[in-house]
């Protein structure tokens, strides 16, 4: 391969250097040079040159050395296209030899020169000649003896004298760095960070500014913001008589930068260099349009800027930094929005396991609801409530959860289940109330009746033992892991406001209770897109009435029980309407199979018989009568609405009466009533007739008028296909992609967690379809449904309210398909608002 002129280039303001040809570091150094900052002379080697070097074709290094001034020491640093992709470690002090050491001793003193030489021999031996670091363990203390020792080890192990020619040293350093980039581990590591298989490596060869010797000499790093909060704060360290990033590893001798009560500072030691450095960083911020960290060296009082890298930051700092840059007019608001990965907002909304802490992982499952919490293991909803009453944090551990567990879930700090996937009960509720949750942890043995868990490595955990649930990563950790608090500040609110200014698809929240609704408002959702009303029946005092209704022998008995539920539901809806003020609220009529409200074991049946004053046999017979082989495909949703119409009649009456009640208080609401699990147009016809008739009755009984909208939840493939028949009867269609995914794949949403990771690992599914909308199959049903609905009823409102509503890729699909809004759990609303905004930028 021929080395072209542009492949080895002295960095000057006009040199042809690109991030795609020479890497990000080379490009950044060129920008610094353009700003006239004191960057030492630097040569950039292109990706192509480094590739050729790895293949054994070394360019003319004498020419390269003469570009840099023949007597200088050099360092070589990696310059990959994206600094996150890593690269081999930098090698400093190339050019140190016996002769150079003697010459330098004249200038900086013999001790400092010997230290530099020793440092180079060590790093060359380990990183270039690949000697075992252990061989240098018994190094004598005196620097001269240590140097002699290191040179001898080199000779013994390589059977060659330590190379004295700088060109030879440089060639070996370049070769070893070029080859390290091609190693399998390095390749896998960078691919895991998103690098393409053919990602290139550039190298920069820079004249060293020596941080050792006479006058004030040393090195350090500096940035203008705090990496954890993003707050404006000069951060970094400086260490006299040091090189590279020594100041960060030697906490003892390192100085603060700015004057600081905690100890001596660079500002006091070298005020001019400090002021110069600070102004360089402000200039970099403005011209590079980014918060940068500078690596600098002071050599005999003179400042050199060796490198600039983007400040490392967590999500919270990323938001503050982006907002501050836009507020200062350095970047546009749109750019600020584009700089934040929507999912990263989860870090601001939930507590997290400290990413720097070590983790004792017991097992992994599905990361079903983000955030982390530590608590004592409890195995039942009752135990969870008792623990909460004692003020103890507990983790509710169940094989799977059911609606009965809701109060236990509210009382717990986290939930762990053996079964389930992204849309199983625990996952949906967990996300809804912001509770960290790991489901489908089937590698753990759940022995809930014996009240213990056995981890895959054999460790046994009993009730009361502490575990930490990391719902962000899907990990179950032993004991108490260090957690970082959630925290969002003004910058977050400002960024969200900008997102709303550009966004062109609305974001509503799935909210079932007044608490959820408040959360939805806090996160600025544009109304409620799905209120799952059945959750209201598990509140204290209601379950019993609900059960009486289920056991009612006759229609009047059933009506009597429903009559008692009516005021409770009316209050529920009135509360929701008041909290949401004039925002839309979409209420889904009762959806689950009735058996979910009944106990499942014999003891429970007995207790129920006692409570309802019925013979045990009546209870067991009724439970048996309600049991189904496949309840999710059975008597639920609109099927129940048609066969037991009194439930829906009670609910719509409660909705209408609540509408009238809050209207009297000045809250104008047009409730949206949604029919679940529809598969035939006639179902809609029947329910619509009843809803209209209840409305007429309420109007005539109260003498008050009100408006409402009726809609259908498209959750069965047939409803999507027949959307053309259904649409003309209603005002809106909302795609319930949880059930629609379940039914399109024929895949149980409650059991899929067991094999989902195998399926994804083996490439059967590209991703969990309950998490990311399946664009090839399920989304095609959405497109067909939307198209047929619009053809038949052009003004119809279209939306999605399955869990996919909070997923950025799925939102992109909904926006492209012209949907009016997406609806997702309250805690996912900010993520959805930002993702939607990015699509519109
Ligand atoms: C759905 O099926 O997508 C849905 C939102 O309803 P649920 O999760 O309550 O079944
Ligand atoms: Mg559903």
From TrEMBL:
GO terms for molecular function: ATP binding; kinase activity; metal ion binding; pyruvate, phosphate dikinase activity. Substrate binds at residues 532, 588, 715, 736-739. The keyword rRNA-binding does not apply. It is an enzyme of class 2 (transferase). Residues 393-474 form the PEP-utilising enzyme mobile domain. The active site is at residues 425, 801. Its cofactor is Mg(2+). It comes from the Bacteria. Mg(2+) binds at residues 715, 739. PROSITE patterns: PEP_ENZYMES_2 (PS00742). Its EC number is 2.7.9.1. Keywords: Kinase, Magnesium, Metal-binding, Pyruvate, Transferase. It holds the Pfam family PEP-utilizers_C. Residues 492-840 form the PEP-utilising enzyme C-terminal domain. Belongs to the PEP-utilizing enzyme family. PANTHER family: PHOSPHOENOLPYRUVATE DIKINASE-RELATED, PYRUVATE, PHOSPHATE DIKINASE 1, CHLOROPLASTIC. Catalyzes the reversible phosphorylation of pyruvate and phosphate. This is Pyruvate, phosphate dikinase. It comes from Pelagivirga sediminicola.
């Amino acid at each position: 391969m021929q080395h072209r002129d542009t492949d080895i280039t002295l960095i000057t303001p006009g040199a042809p250097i690109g991030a795609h040809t020479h890497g990000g570091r080379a490009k950044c150094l060129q920008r610094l040079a353009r700003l006239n900052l004191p960057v030492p002379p630097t040569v950039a080697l292109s990706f192509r040159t480094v590739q050729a070097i790895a293949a054994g074709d070394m360019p003319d290094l004498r020419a390269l050395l003469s570009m840099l001034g023949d007597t200088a020491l050099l360092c070589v640093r990696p310059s990959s296209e994206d600094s996150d992709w890593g690269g081999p470690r930098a090698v400093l002090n190339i050019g140190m030899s016996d002769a150079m050491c003697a010459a330098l001793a004249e200038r900086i003193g013999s001790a400092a020169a010997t230290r530099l030489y020793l440092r180079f021999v060590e790093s060359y031996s380990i990183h270039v000649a690949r000697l075992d670091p252990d061989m240098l363990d018994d190094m004598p203390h005196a620097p001269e003896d240590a140097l002699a020792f290191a040179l001898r080890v080199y000779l013994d192990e390589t059977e060659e004298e330590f190379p004295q020619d700088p060109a030879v040293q440089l060639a070996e350093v370049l070769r070893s760095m070029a080859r390290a980039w091609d190693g399998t581990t390095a390749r896998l590591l960078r691919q895991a960070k998103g690098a393409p298989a053919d990602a290139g490596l550039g190298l920069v060869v820079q004249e060293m500014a020596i941080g050792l010797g006479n006058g004030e000499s040393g090195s350090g790093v500096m940035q203008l913001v705090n990496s954890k909060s993003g707050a404006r704060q000069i951060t970094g360290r400086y260490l006299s008589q040091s090189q590279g990033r020594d100041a960060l590893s030697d906490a003892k001798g390192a100085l603060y930068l700015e004057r600081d009560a905690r100890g001596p500072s660079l500002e006091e030691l070298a005020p001019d260099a400090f002021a110069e450095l600070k102004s360089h960083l402000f200039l970099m911020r403005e011209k590079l349009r980014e918060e940068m960290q500078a690596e600098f060296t002071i050599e005999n009082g003179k400042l050199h800027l060796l490198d600039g890298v983007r400040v490392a930051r967590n999500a919270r700092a990323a938001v503050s930094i982006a907002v501050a840059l836009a507020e200062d007019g350095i970047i546009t608001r749109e750019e600020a929005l584009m700089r934040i990965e929507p999912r990263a907002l989860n870090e601001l909304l939930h507590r997290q396991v400290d990413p720097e802490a070590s983790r004792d992982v017991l097992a992994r499952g599905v990361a079903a609801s983000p955030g982390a919490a530590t608590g004592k293991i409890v195995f039942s909803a009752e135990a969870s409530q008792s623990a909460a009453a004692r003020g103890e944090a507990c983790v509710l551990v169940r094989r799977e959860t059911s609606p009965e567990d809701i109060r236990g879930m509210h009382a717990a700090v986290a939930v762990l289940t053996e079964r389930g996937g992204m849309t199983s009960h625990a996952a949906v509720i967990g996300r809804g109330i912001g509770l960290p949750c790991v489901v489908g942890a089937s590698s753990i043995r759940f022995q809930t009746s014996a009240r213990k868990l056995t981890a895959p490595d054999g460790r046994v955990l009993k009730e009361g033992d502490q575990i930490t649930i990391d719902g962000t990563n899907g990990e179950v950790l032993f004991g108490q892991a260090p957690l970082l608090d959630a925290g969002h500040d003004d910058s977050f609110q400002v960024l969200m406001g900008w997102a709303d200014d550009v966004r062109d698809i609305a974001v509503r929240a799935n909210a079932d209770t007044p608490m959820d609704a408040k959360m939805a408002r806090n996160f600025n959702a544009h109304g409620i897109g799905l209120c799952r009303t059945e959750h209201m029946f598990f509140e204290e005092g209601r379950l019993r009435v609900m059960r009486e209704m289920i056991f009612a022998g006759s229609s009047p008995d059933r009506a009597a029980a429903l009559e008692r539920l009516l005021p409770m539901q009316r209050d529920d809806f009135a509360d929701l309407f008041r909290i949401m003020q004039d925002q839309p609220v979409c209420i889904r009529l009762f959806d689950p199979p009735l058996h979910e409200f009944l106990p499942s074991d014999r003891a429970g049946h007995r207790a129920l018989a006692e409570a309802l004053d019925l013979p045990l046999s009546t209870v067991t017979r009724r439970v048996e009568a309600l049991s189904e082989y496949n309840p999710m495909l059975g008597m639920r949703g609109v099927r129940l609405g048609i066969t037991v119409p009194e439930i829906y009649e009670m609910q719509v009456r409660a909705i209408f009466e609540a509408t009238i009640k809050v209207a009297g208080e000045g809250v104008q609401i047009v409730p949206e009533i949604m029919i679940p699990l529809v598969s035939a147009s006639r179902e809609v016809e029947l329910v619509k007739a009843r809803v209209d008739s209840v409305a007429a009755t309420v109007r005539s009984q109260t003498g008050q008028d009100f408006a409402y909208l009726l809609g259908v939840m498209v959750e069965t493939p047939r409803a999507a296909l027949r959307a053309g028949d259904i649409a003309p009867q209603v005002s809106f269609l909302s795609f319930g992609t949880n059930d629609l995914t379940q039914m399109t794949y024929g895949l149980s949403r409650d059991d899929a967690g067991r094999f989902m990771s195998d399926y994804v690992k083996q490439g059967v599914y590209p991703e969990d379809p309950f998490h990311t909308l399946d664009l090839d199959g399920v989304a095609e049903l959405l497109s067909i449904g939307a198209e047929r609905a619009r053809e038949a009823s052009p003004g119809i409102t279209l939306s999605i309210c399955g869990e996919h509503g909070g997923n950025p890729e799925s939102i992109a699909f909904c926006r492209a398909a012209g949907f009016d809004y997406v609806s997702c759990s309250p805690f996912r609303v900010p993520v959805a608002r930002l993702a939607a905004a990015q699509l519109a930028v």
